Model the fold of this input.
Amino acid sequence: GQQMSLDVVIPIALEQLEGNILASGKLYAGDLLMAVVSIDGTFWSENPKLAQRLSDVLIEVELVSETLNEVSETFRAQTSAGTT
Done:
């Protein structure tokens, strides 16, 4: 969040996110991802390999999100059908 030593910190953060997209930076699940995507665009322009790694993490986030939405909709459909 302090945008200091990003060339050292971001590879470590990306490694954590590649292992767990909801890794916590200490506040809540997913706060590490929020901190990383909040970094100024100049850093990403100057570090295309790291930007690609973040892009890959975000693709995984989108896929997981789609899956969770489907699971949630299925569950809600099943449970609401039983309550009517």
User: Anything to note?
Assistant: The CA atoms of residues 2 and 46 lie 18 Å apart.
